[in-house]
């Protein structure tokens, strides 16, 4: 055995226009995963002559492949290759790839075996920590393969990656073939091409772009963005396309400080308008239009629970701003290079059934009292080929105690100082065998003994039976120090952003907890949340922002 440096070219598959007929080798490849044949309806097909290679698939050749699809054309010099992608029926793009050509050391062996009647030799290499074994033949005087790996060796008839994924030729034919011409296809640089291809593989719903969420009496709405509560809430009407129940849907949120230096509660939400009263009406008129929840502690809480005539906000994401990211990056500390923005991303596929083919007001809230406030951008992306574990038949928002109208008079969620806590009644129209509660909980009270810094057990009770108890807590907040340039540094050597908190960190998303409720029968039910909320000290008090959405399968 000996080693030899071979130039490798990487690529995928596309669609084109065709030129003169040439004598060609056609190779059809099967794919195996863990010894099982896969993708039988769409095998890889490679056409190779003395001076050209065209790698495609059966579906592309039959014109049955759904966009986007990608394939390659290369010449036998292997100095460069062209990747071509049909993004849609109207859009075809390509790139000439020379910058990513890399050299790998193949280890060549004298081992042989026959594939499709041709004697093949063995070669191995490692690419990105993956172990590849190739079997190639020089008996046909062409350089080709099911992809560009190892094409300089000869005709690659088998590629084995990590002994669990195999591409292997099952037919080799000699035919006449019109090779594609790519001359008239729009060309992009490789990075732009990759970005266009990647973005074509999912749907993007733009929601907010560089919008300011601040506290100012000068905040005004425009034709597309509505502003409420002195600018601390922004809304946009969004039309959702048809979403399959097993698609995957994500929120992408980007945030920078535009003046506010503190960690603040943020929430992204949907306003349901399925009942007589909606949260939108309260925003347009006054918080007093919302139904009141009382539990005997002498306080009134507006719009926190599902009632016969009101559905609370459906929370998409609970997030927390860091201490002054970007705006306060001028604060310098040795060996600290601050990030200039924080990016949050969360799976919201549980809500596909609720969102599909509907139009909603989508909102963003950041509780702050700063005229500069924060700047955000937000998109929702929808991806095919998801997972059945996310499929749901119904979505029912039960409660949301985050006082997003804080700057317009909505009370803080201090109802947990009563032994009753939060009690919500709801009714199901039929039996469901698999129901769970998507529960998000964060504790607040930002002084030494406040519930922000004191672990507190959450108890969830369904129909007078405890179904779940846990203590929401985050101990990894110090991992995000570089998001927090304005975080205070204390005498004990810690920064404020380092401290563990009740299920949140400055600059992070709060993860929901999934509580399995099992089978629920048709009819009326009651859910209760109990938390041993801490007592006020002077002018300071604790509160708990909890949201719960019932999801049934």
Automatic annotation (TrEMBL):
Keyword Disulfide bond, does the record have it? yes
Q: Coiled-coil intervals in this record? A: none
| Keywords for the protein's UniProt record, in alphabetical order | Disulfide bond
Concerning SUPFAM superfamilies, the annotation shows:
PHM/PNGase F
User: Does the entry feature the keyword Lyase, yes or no?
Assistant: no
Where the record annotates domain Peptide-N-glycosidase F N-terminal, the positions are 204-382
Query: Which first-to-last residue range defines the signal peptide?
Result: none
Identify the SMART domains for this entry.
N-glycanase_N (SM01290)
NCBIfam families per the record? GLPGLI
Q: What is this protein called?
A: Peptide-N-glycosidase F N-terminal domain-containing protein
């Amino acid at each position: 055995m000996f080693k030899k440096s071979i130039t490798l070219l990487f690529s995928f598959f596309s669609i084109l226009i065709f030129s003169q007929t040439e004598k060609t080798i056609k190779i059809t490849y099967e794919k195996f995963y863990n010894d099982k044949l896969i993708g039988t309806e769409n095998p890889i097909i490679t056409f190779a002559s003395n001076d050209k290679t065209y790698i495609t698939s059966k579906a592309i050749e039959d014109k049955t492949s759904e966009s986007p699809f990608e394939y390659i054309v290369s010449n036998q010099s292997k100095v460069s290759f062209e990747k071509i992608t049909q993004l849609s029926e109207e859009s075809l793009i390509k790139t000439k790839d020379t910058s990513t050509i890399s050299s790998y050391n193949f280890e060549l062996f004298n081992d042989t075996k026959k594939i499709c009647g041709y004697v093949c030799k063995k070669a191995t290499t490692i690419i990105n920590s993956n172990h590849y074994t190739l079997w190639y033949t020089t008996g046909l005087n062409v350089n080709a393969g099911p992809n560009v790996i190892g094409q300089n060796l000869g005709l690659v008839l088998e590629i084995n990656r990590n002994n669990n994924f195999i591409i292997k030729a099952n037919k080799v034919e000699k035919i006449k073939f019109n090779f594609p011409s790519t001359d008239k296809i729009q060309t992009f640089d490789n990075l732009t091409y990759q970005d266009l291809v990647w973005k074509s593989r999912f749907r993007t719903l733009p929601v907010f772009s560089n919008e300011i969420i601040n506290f100012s009496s000068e905040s005004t709405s425009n034709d597309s963005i509505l502003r409420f509560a002195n600018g601390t809430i922004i809304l946009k009407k969004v039309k959702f396309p048809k979403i399959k129940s097993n698609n995957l849907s994500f929120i992408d949120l980007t945030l920078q400080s535009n003046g506010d230096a503190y960690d603040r509660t943020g929430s992204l939400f949907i306003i349901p308008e399925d009942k007589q009263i909606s949260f939108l009406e309260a925003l347009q008129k006054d918080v007093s239009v919302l139904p009141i929840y009382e539990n005997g502690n002498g306080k009134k809480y507006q719009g926190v629970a599902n009632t016969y005539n009101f559905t609370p906000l459906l929370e998409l994401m609970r997030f927390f701003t860091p201490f002054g990211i970007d705006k306060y990056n001028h604060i310098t500390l040795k060996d600290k290079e601050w990030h200039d923005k924080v990016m949050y991303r969360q799976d919201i596929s549980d809500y596909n059934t609720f969102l599909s083919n509907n139009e909603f007001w989508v909102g963003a809230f950041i509780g702050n009292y700063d005229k500069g406030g924060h700047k955000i951008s937000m998109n929702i992306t929808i991806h095919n080929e998801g997972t059945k574990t996310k499929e749901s038949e119904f979505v029912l928002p039960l409660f949301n105690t985050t006082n997003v109208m804080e700057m317009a008079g909505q009370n803080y969620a201090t109802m947990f100082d009563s032994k009753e806590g939060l009690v919500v009644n709801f009714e199901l129209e039929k039996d469901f065998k698999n129901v769970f509660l998507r529960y998000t909980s964060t504790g607040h009270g930002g002084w030494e003994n406040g519930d922000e810094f004191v672990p507190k057990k959450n108890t969830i009770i369904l129909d007078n039976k405890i179904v779940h108890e846990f203590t929401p807590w985050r101990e990894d907040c110090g991992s995000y120090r570089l998001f927090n340039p304005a975080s205070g540094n204390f005498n004990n050597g810690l920064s404020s952003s380092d401290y563990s908190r009740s299920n949140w960190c400055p600059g992070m998303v709060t993860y929901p907890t999934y509580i399995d409720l099992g089978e629920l029968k048709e009819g009326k039910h009651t859910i209760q949340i109990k938390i041993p909320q801490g007592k006020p000290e002077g002018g300071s008090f604790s509160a708990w922002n909890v949201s719960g959405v019932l999801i049934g399968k």
